[in-house]
Give the backbone structure.
Amino acid sequence: MADNCSTDNTLEVLTELGRKDPAVVVLANQMNYGGEASIGNVLDQARIYDLVVFLCSDLQDPPEIALEMVRSLIEHPELDAVLAVKKKSAGGPMLRLARRIYYQALGLSSRHSIVPSGFHGFGCYRQSVIEEAVCFWKSSDLNARQCLTNACQLPLLLYYQQPDRMKGTSSYQGLGYFPEALRALISGDAAGSRLALVMSLIGMALSTLIGVFLLLNFLSGRSTYSSGIPTVMGLVLISFAMQMLMIALLSRQIEGLRMGGFRRKVFFRQIGDVN
């Protein structure tokens, strides 16, 4: 159980549970590091188990689904994870559309796999997936759900109906969604290189078309420019297109050689023995 510096008596309750049951291990963060950093720390601490189920403490995701997840991995050894995907998100049509677009963009900003629309980390994972997800977390700026999906080789998607929130509030309220969404999109390990690739390809295509048009227009005699100007302009634009091609190739190479980002260290005290 990871407590992200709760302001109520959550930590006291968890500490008491840990004293009564040695199987309960509590990670008490020294401050509120946010949901992503806390999940990343849990990933790092959960690698000694054969199967790991991630579940938010608000129980908005039905805990009983975990039994079906574990059963699926036991009965199908070829699967390495079960990803729980919400059939329908809360909110109006515009909010649901925005979330769907966000999930698509989130997948495109990563060079491995598309994040299923409606997946936020709830699922059951084998130890190999957790170890791979930790590697992604420590060597890149991917968020938690990207790390988990990218670490999966053959996951099973389990669709479920999430009930409306009865108590408490979400970690991101109102405009709080936008900074987190923007941070996740621009920090993807392929976001920068793919944006550079798209922009350079567009620039290359436009400059090539304009350069060829100027040269053909001059050669056909329809140009009003004096001799030499269209040739120079066309050559300059074609040269610019070659530069854009070089940038496109370079950005494609960068995508395969992505350097790791910076992660904020989580300080916590452990209550209970993970062994």
Remarks:
- The mean pLDDT is 77.
